[in-house]
Amino acid sequence: MKLEQNLPHQINAINAVLRVFDNIEGRFSADRTKCPFMTSDLETIKTNIVQIQNGEKSGCFSDDYSVPETLRQNYTDSSAHYLNIDIKMETGTGKTYVYTRTMFELHQKYGVNKFIVLVPTVPIKEGAKSFLKSAYMKSDLQSLYGGTELRLHVLDAQKQHTRGRKPFPAAIQAFAENTDLNGNKIDVLLTNSGMLNSAKTMDAEYDQTLLGTFTNPYQVLRNINPFVIIDEPHKFNRTKGTFKTLVEKIKPQVIIRYGATFPEMGKDKIDYENVVYSLNSCRAFNDNLVKGVQVEYIADEDKIKDRVKIKVLEINAAKGEAKSVRFQNEQTKKTFDLQENASLSEIDVSFQNIHVAVISKAEVQLNNGMILHKSDSLYPDIFGETFQTTMLNLAIDRHFEKEYDNFCADVKKIKTLSLFFIDSIQSFRDDGFLRQEFERLLKEKFHDLIKKYQKSARREEKEYADYLLFSLKNLKKTIAGYFAEDNNTDSDEVRQEVDKVLRQKDEIIKIKTENGEWEPTRFIFSKWTLKEGWDNPNIFVIAKLRSSGSETSKLQEVGRGLRLPVDELGERQSERQFYLRYIIDYSEKDFAEKLLSEINFGAEVEFKITKSFLEEYAKKKQIDIKAFFKDLIVKDYIDPETHEPISDNLSAFKENYPDLFTSLNEGKIVNVNAAGGKFSEKVKIRKKNYDKLASLWRSINQKFYLHIDSTKEEDLKEMLFTMLKKGIDASSNVSTSIRQTTKSDDGSVKFTSETGSAFSLKKEMPYSDFLKKAQNETNIPITLLHEVFCEYFKEHPLPEKFFSKQTLRRLIEDYRDWYIKTFAEKYSYEKVNAPVADPLCDENNSVKEYVVRNDIGVLNCKETPLENYLYDSCAYDSDLERSNITHDIKSRIASVEVYGKIPRRTVRIPTYADGTYSPDFMYVINRQNGKQQLNLVVETKDKTKDHIDPEERRKITAARKLFEKLRKEVPDVYYRPQISKQDMTEIIESVIKGDDINNDLYL
After folding, report:
1. Confidence band (pLDDT; 50, 70, 90) for 757?
2. Angle at 720 between CA 718 and CA 721, to 5 degrees
3. N or C: which terminus of the chain has fewer CB atoms within 10 Å of its end residue's CB?
4. How far apart are CA 957 and CA 1002, in angstroms?
């Protein structure tokens, strides 16, 4: 798997933590086994935190972000004991990557070298361990920080020593004794809650001393003065257990908590302290940082009311009395009093193998992990074998629908995995009923699909048939399971399955192994053990063959499959909308609505309307501020003095100003049953309309090569000498950004940017590394760079530590500026006879029946497109696109014969400085005077002209240049940009007249 670096939300979270320590000088101990002390100046730190929260730290965030006011209120103040920092990030958005890179940044800037990473459970620990030991972490992250090495020490259960000396756990000894004398080592101790609290391991006295005098692990860790990173903070209540142990016995100087949810401390009270960044679930879904969710359940709605329902009436756990729980059959009203270890089969035979495990004051836990509170209900037949077979069948069907699309429908193949939550290990292990039934159904499905695709003429489908045939021959290897009970198994076969699930996630997302053999694993079974903390990016189906019981976070439930998938090369795929299919029983038929409500509620909690917020909104929308406020006050939408919304009129306020409020975009959470089962990830192509567009489509969907004029060596030398004379020796305490040049196969050049952080010291580099990195990121030959440096510094003094990372960044930035100015006109296009992706036609050039919905738009509306639109459904990416799709052209000089959205990743236009880009619409226009039809390609920019930045203008200019070239081969094909509030009628009429109303957008 490869890391996609520099995603804006991740860089924001990293910078937010770093900037807490602005203007803080760490106190280093002579004993370099310890962390530098970073919290002596709490007043400066508190000032930094306030500035970060207010968005006042220059260069901290890549956008105009500020922490929502509702998150700035601290539940408590821990600063007398330790510094607490909170980062709120939704599940699936890369918390592990963020806190790992934050460790590298804290080390690079401040020398912090000892971190304890604390997680709640073993599955989460195994996931973190896999990431921190992965090859891609070493190749991507360690190389990004000059080869700095992260040494991982995992604290596991210790073997009992019955004889001889009792040595310290190896992980603690290595963590404690390692030093960072050369400034290129980070030590990380990874532990879970159970191990940190283990009296046998942590509170024991050992026959050995560490750091001079210490014989107890807690004392050793306390002496190191570590930074602690906590994952899943809602599992660590500060007033209880593990957290108290951490604070009282280890006494860290800093605790940084990363999580989607934080401990609830009572009604409307959440334990936040010093939140410096928040990425809520609404934003994660809307920005396409995670998969959407399709919820589906099996039910005959008319018969639900006739099904038996069992309700929890009372829970009795009073002292001095036998603990019991009272259930009631809601149909017969008969009650049942059960004690711990009593079987629920006394109530209904469908509850076979289900019994009461633990009864406490407020809840009952069943042996399958289900938690029940008073008034919770169960449907017995959901636990029956017939219903579970039906659920398995549905999940298998949905799996192979996803798998076919991911394997055959795109250039890059994506491995498809499914996760099943079940009640009982006995039903799965040792050829239990569930496993036997699943294998039977799976075998039937494999036979049907192999028969369907083996004789196909399509290369992809033939290859898919081979994959299916291999899987059929290795049926048992397609399935893996993990259960808590497996930790004590003696079975090698079970251990291999557990390793697959917990420790080899990177292997099971591959379609083929390193030796070229198919990797068949795709069905993972577990109890609720994997509910939190474990995930896999390629989970596309989750089937819950058991109810959650008591109310739980719906986001946490779907979180195991929210991460965006990676392809067969390990690259994250984010260009299209993916969906997780979540299959549940009918007792949770309102799951989709609850999930939607939870996401929107989270957004509303963080959202607060203030006067300054409304002023900024008016400014962005170019609305007269006075008229805007007058309208809001007259309609009783806001209070005239506080500017807060008036609750009685909030619905009308939202309806009239929908884009002012934060809410989940349509189509992100889909209730498949409510859609009558008709929801589809595909959109039908209207064949008659395609036939009219076919000529234009084939002429523009071609491969183009960008030819950039060659650069004379003397011009490069002159540029470098000018740069050196101006000065690129970076001074300290500056905010920087890294830009890297990459050249694609089509000749396009792209500069990728990375928001950096403020440096207080220069990080010197070996001269050879400096030259290599400069060449890699600018394409200037090493020999030329060396020649210029030697010649220049013969006549000028060489500044101290000149060849540093800061100087390199300045060189790259100045080179980019020179390159953009120099080559603005020095490029041209050539058509290349090479195959291109065609989502509209098959390999025989016959129009397909469907296109993937999100290849033409991530948003959906219920309006039916016009008859001359290419597709039968409206999928769009902006309000301007939606308007183009749903509104007719009313012109006296032209009419639209046919038009359509251009699918993503097609008509790719290479640019000389900004990678490739694709326009949005294609039109065939009829002139009213009867002359030849006109073809038009349109780029929509739902922005005003003053908000279109130079990069976008360069792309628009490049596109115009390409279409001018293309018009020499294809008469009457034109390109035009369209900006906010411009009707397509204006654009079309201007083309007919030979004008371009947006001519001032080009550079």
Report:
1. very low
2. 65
3. C
4. 5
- Which tokens is 71 given? 């998150």
Q: H-type helices in 133-234, by residue range? A: 135-136, 143-144, 170-177, 193-196, 199-202, 217-224
Q: Mean pLDDT in the chain?
A: 84
Residue 549, strand partner residues: 371
The answer to whether the Cα torsion of 913, 918, 923, 924 is positive or negative is positive
DSSP 8-class letter at 330: T
Asked whether the beta carbons of 418 and 425 are under 8 A apart, the reply is no
Helix (H) or strand (E) holding 777: helix 767-778
Nearest-CA neighbor of 769 among 143, 1, 117, 214? 143
Q: How many CB atoms lie within 10 A of CB 995?
A: 11
The pLDDT value recorded for residue 532 is: 52
pLDDT tens column, 298-347: 765 555 556 788 899 999 988 878 899 999 998 899 999 999 999 998 99
Alpha carbons 369 and 546: distance in angstroms, whole number: 10
Helix/strand number for the chain, H first, E second: 31, 35
Q: Up-side HSE of residue 187: CA atoms within 13 Å toward CB? A: 23
Cα 5 from Cα 7, distance rounded (Å): 6
d(CA 108, CA 147): 11
pLDDT at 87 over 90: yes
Question: Cα separation of 420 and 747, whole Å?
Answer: 46
DSSP secondary-structure letter at 198?
A: -
Euclidean distance between CA atoms 90 and 562, whole angstroms = 10
pTM value > 0.85: no
Proportion of the chain in helix, strand, coil states, percent, rounded to 5:
40, 20, 40
Tens of pLDDT, residues 236-253: 999 888 999 999 999 999
Query: 3-class SS at 1001?
Result: helix
Q: Give the angle 475-478-482 at the CA atoms, nearest 5°.
A: 125
Q: Where are the beta strands (DSSP E) in 627-696?
A: 669-671, 682-684
In sequence order, what are the residues at sequence separation of 6 or more whose Cβ sits closer than 8 angstroms to the Cβ of residue 899?
693, 868, 869, 870, 884, 921, 922, 923, 924
- For the chain, give the percent of residues with pLDDT over 90: 35
Q: What pLDDT shows up at residue 623? A: 73
Q: Where are the alpha helices (DSSP H) in 474-517?
A: 492-498, 505-508
Q: Are 664 and 596 in contact (CB under 8 A)?
A: yes
d(CA 599, CA 260): 12
Per-residue confidence band for 605, with pLDDT thresholds at 50, 70 and 90: low
Kind plus residue range of the DSSP H or E element containing 450: helix 433-453
Nearest Cα to Cα of residue 111 among 761, 892, 877: 761
Of 428-437, 550-559, 717-726, 819-828, least confident by mean pLDDT is 550-559
Please check whether residue 847 is in contact with residue 841, taking contact to mean a CB–CB distance below 8 angstroms. yes
Q: Which two tokens stand for residue 980?
A: 């906010």
What pLDDT sits at residue 521? Answer: 93
| Residue at 108: amino acid letter | Q
Residue with tokens 């799965």: 428
Query: What's the burial of 355, exposed, middle or buried (CB within 10 Å: 0-12/13-18/19+)?
Result: middle
Whether 4 contacts 192, CB under 8 Å: no
Q: With contact defined as beta carbons under 8 Å apart, do 363 and 371 qualify?
A: yes
E strand segments, 21-140 = 83-89, 114-119
Q: Report the C-alpha gap between 21 and 256 in whole angstroms.
A: 13
- Provide the Cα torsion 650, 652, 654, 660; round to 10°: -100
- Cα separation, 566 vs 412, in Å, equals 10
Integer CA distances (angstroms), 362 to 317, 320, 335, 441, 826, in order: 8, 17, 19, 41, 74
Distance CA 371, CA 549 (A): 6
What residue type is 373 in one-letter code?
H
**Cα angle, residue 780 at apex, residues 775 and 785 outer, rounded to 5°:** 85
Is the pLDDT confidence value at 385 over 90? no
Query: Region 571-599: what's the mean pLDDT?
Result: 80
